[in-house]
Amino acid sequence: MQTAPTSTPDPLLETQLFFDRYKMPLLMGALALILIVGAVSAYRYFAARKTAAATELLAKAKGPDEYNKVMAEYPSSGAAASAHLLLAAQQREKQQFAEANATLQRFLDKFSDHQLVTTAQMAIAGNLQSLGKPDEALEKYRRVAADHPKSFNAPLALLAQAQLLKQKGQTEEARRVCETVLTQYRESYAAQEAAGLLRTLKPTTPPAAAAAVPVAPPAGAPSSAPAPSVSPVGTSPAAAPTP
Predict the structure, then answer these.
(1) Most buried of the four, 23, 42, 98, 235, by CB within 10 Å?
(2) Is 75 helix (H, G, I), strand (E, B) or coil?
(3) Above pLDDT 90, what percent of the chain?
(4) Cα(188)–Cα(155) distance, rounded to whole angstroms?
């Protein structure tokens, strides 16, 4: 009995038929992919040029006007972040502490995720000390240590707290902060400074003095004070009869 012949599929023909059927969607998808790749490449190119221009402008900056120009022309760039910090440092050198803190606060508001956030906060606290505001500075140091306990500035903030507390005469609080540094950050540079500071902090309430106990002299030793003389009863001159 003769069997019917079976047809073998032709891959080339099937591919041609598939392409003819979905030609437009495939072409549109390829075009979209080309546009996306081109857009990403263009963005990276212009971003690199923008970054290079901002960095070059920052490198030439020497004073407030130049730093402010970097901030204005490239507000979201890394160069703008650095410009804030450099301007604040320059203002501090000129003892413009309030202006420096305003610059640092703008940095914190705009670059809250920057790796030097705690450094800016420490600088603000230092400027507050220079402005004669130790209580505000103390609170700023406390916030740095509490909010960023794993930061490299955390032990330094604690150490600054202890020094301020010592100046304010709050010895016991200063001792506790030093002990915290020694316990939680024993491998840090601040731990060495805290140990030295702790040795200078004497307790404000000295231990109660022990009750004085008289010590008996050793056997055979002469008494330091003569024993009082006691006359026998009835032998005193006043009591003796007159002959």
Answers:
(1) 98
(2) coil
(3) 59
(4) 7
Q: Which residues of the chain have pLDDT under 70?
A: 1-24, 26-27, 29-31, 33-47, 204-243
Q: At CA 177, angle to CA 117 and CA 112, rounded to 5?
A: 10
Q: Helix count (H) and strand count (E) of the chain?
A: 10, 0
* Torsion of the alpha carbons at 127, 128, 130 and 135, rounded to the nearest 10: -150
Which tokens is 176 given? 């506790």
Q: What is the pLDDT of residue 155?
A: 96
Tell me, yes or no, whether 143 lies in a domain: yes
Fill in the amino acid letter for 172.
E
Inside any domain, residue 64: yes
pLDDT of residue 37: 64
Q: Is residue 47 part of a domain?
A: yes
Write out the two tokens for 179: 């002990």
Using the structure block, give the residue that is written with the tokens 């109660």: 208
Q: Please count the structural domains in the chain.
A: 1
CA 193: distance to chain centroid? Answer: 16
Q: Whole-prediction pTM value?
A: 0.67
The domain that holds 108 is classified in CATH as: 1.25.40.10
Closest of 119, 197, 203, 131 to residue 161, by C-alpha: 197
**Residue 174 belongs to domain spanning:** 25-200
Q: Is residue 225 part of a domain?
A: no
- For 153-169, b where at least 16 C-beta lie within 10 A, e where not — what string? bbbbbbbbbbbbbbeee
- 140 by Cβ neighbours in 10 Å (0-12 / 13-18 / 19+) ranks as buried
Nearest to 188 by CA among 158, 152, 226: 152
